[in-house]
Predict the 3D structure of the following.
Amino acid sequence: MTIAKERAIKTIEEFEPRAALLKVKCPVLVLGGEKDLQVLPRHVKLIKEGLEKGGNNRVTAILYPGKNHLMQDAVTGELSEYGEIENTIAPDVVADIVNWIKSL
C-alpha cells in the first residue's frame, strides 16, 4: 500500500461525521435509497437529526422506496445491478433535486 493510500484510509477512519454535521449551516438536501447497501437507509434520518441538532433548520431529507445508492430503481440494491439498470438516476429523484434547488 502506498503512503498516500495509507493516509487516505487513516483520514477516513478518523473522520467523525456527527461532529462535522453540527457545523453545517447551509441548506442541505439529504437523499437516500431504501435499497442502498452502501449508505444505509437509516442514515438519512441520522444525518438529518445531526444537522438539526447543530441548529440547521434548512434540511430536507427524502428516502426513496426501491432506489439504490445511485438513485436508480433497483431490485436488489447490489452493486452488480448498477450497470444493468437503464436509467442513471431515476426521473423522480432528478425532479426533486431540481425543485429543491429552485426553492432556495
Helices lie at 3-14, 17-21, 42-53, 91-103. The mean pLDDT is 92.
